[in-house]
Amino acid sequence: MYASEPPTGEPLPLDLVNTRFGTGASRTDLLATPDGLAAWLTRQADRLGPEALAPASPEAGLPPSPTEADRPLSPTEAGLPLAPAETDLPLHLTEADLPPVHAVRDHIEAALRALMAGRRPPEAALRGLADAQRAAPAVRVPFWDGTAVVAPPRRTGPLGVRLAALLAESAVTLLADPAVARVRQCAADDCVLLFLPAHPRRRWCSPTRCGNRVRVARHYRRRKEA
To answer: Could you tell me the pTM of the whole model?
Structure first.
């Protein structure tokens, strides 16, 4: 049994699936609340990109007005990587933003579990990932930033829908990659976390999370039996 949050750093779709973890039928969901989702997104900000975390607005995806074009663009507007101090954005998430992200997570896990078992991914999962992207398509809207024409990709719609679209796109990229065949579940009996090993001998989601505790438990059993 473990209580610590899962490690991050796996491909983004795996990190998303791993936000729901636990033993047996019991699960802890890091994304059960808007605050939980915001905390996870902040940790993943360097991978999601600033456009994904920008607050939704009726003008999302549209070029700035002439008066706005006279001021310097922020890193978020310019599509530049965020510095560490800039990743703690005020994400205005609500309960309505949770279902689209949860649905994409369900579809990713269903597809991955099927592939890991040597089966075809459920059609509903693949269709769900496609529908999530269609709900907030990326559009490159050109506009003048004061010195040149720029056209960063923008998604329109509520933040949760845009996040779901981005996460679905990342998932499809992984599912279509031959490397997906290497995705594994942690070898610890009570761990459901997934990972993509860089080395074929890797067995644990994390050597400090599961590797150490399994070795300690094994050592304890041996001493008890001696």
So the answer is: 0.79
